[in-house]
Amino acid sequence: MNDEFKNIIESLIFASDEELSVKQISDILGSFNKPISATEIENIIDKLNFGYKANGNAFRIIKVAGGYQFATRKEYAFFVGKLFTERQKKKLSTSSLETLAIIAYKQPITRSEIEFIRGVNVDYIVNSLLERDLINIIGRADSPGKPILYGTTKNFLKVLGINSVEELPKLREINDILKNEKIEGLTEEDIDLFNSINSPDPTSKNENDTENLPINFDQRNDNDRKDERNDEVE
Which of 11, 34, 92, 107 would staple 151 via disulfide (CB 3.0–4.6 Å)? Predict the structure, then answer.
């Protein structure tokens, strides 16, 4: 493969604001009568990365959310983070991260199943995660009431810098860490949350059935939901 293809592919990935898929690269080259296969594109990207590493460059091309994009190496993340501190979005609250983790590992999952695990109402947090495009509605459960099913989005993969949810740490791996390593800042509540995520799915699949849930939502007052909203950073 000549240098022309390598330079074109490098420039396309560099100029794109979002991750660029192999098909997009192939379609662009094909529109200029420069046909190229997916394997050839991937081989070129591998060669580009080999060159970046050999030259000691501070960046590389990574595969994320089904496409390719440039990224700085991990050892320079602190410096790049300082540069973009003012532009960074505010962090998710602890409760939002907990809810997002449950959805990521248990998807597809209903709202009542999330509440069963967390033990609190998650209406506000789920809506917030939907607005941030970290989760979306992926269907309805085949159970009484046909409750909505939630799953993570392509944007979720981009934020984490992974190509698919299969690249998330396995629950067994996390469990081994919790058992064998002393993690600074880890609380009993963190371990309890992990154990609840790692437990079998709730038996109730009906989003409207709260009989088996640990919280009686009919007795919850506005302060309960207000606490969740206050914990969430806009």
Answer: 107
Maximum alpha-carbon separation in the chain:
70
Which pTM does this prediction carry?
Answer: 0.54
Q: In this structure, what token pair is assigned to residue 96?
A: 């939002």
Domain span including residue 21: 3-83
Instruction: Judge whether 73 and 58 are in contact, CB under 8 Å.
Output: yes
Of 208, 217, 213, 103, residue with least CA distance to 146: 208
Total count of domains within the chain: 2
CA Rg value for the chain: 22
Q: How far is 28 from 34, CA to CA, in rounded Å?
A: 9
Q: Which segments within 14-102 are labelled E, that is strand?
A: 59-64, 67-72
Residue in this structure with the two tokens 């919790």, named with its chain if needed: 178
Residues 24 and 70 in one domain: yes
Q: Is residue 224 in a domain?
A: yes
Pairing state between β 59-64 and 67-72: antiparallel
Q: What is the CATH number of the domain that holds 221?
A: 1.10.10.10
How far is it, in rounded angstroms, from Cα 144 to Cα 148? Answer: 11
176 and 201 fall within a common domain:
yes
Give the pLDDT confidence of 39-87 residue by residue, as tens digits: 999 999 999 999 999 999 999 999 998 899 999 998 998 888 777 665 5
Taking only the tens place, the pLDDT of each residue in 154-171 is 989 988 888 898 888 876
Return the closest-CA partner of residue 135 out of 154, 151, 146.
151
Instruction: Provide the 3-class DSSP secondary structure of residue 53.
Output: helix
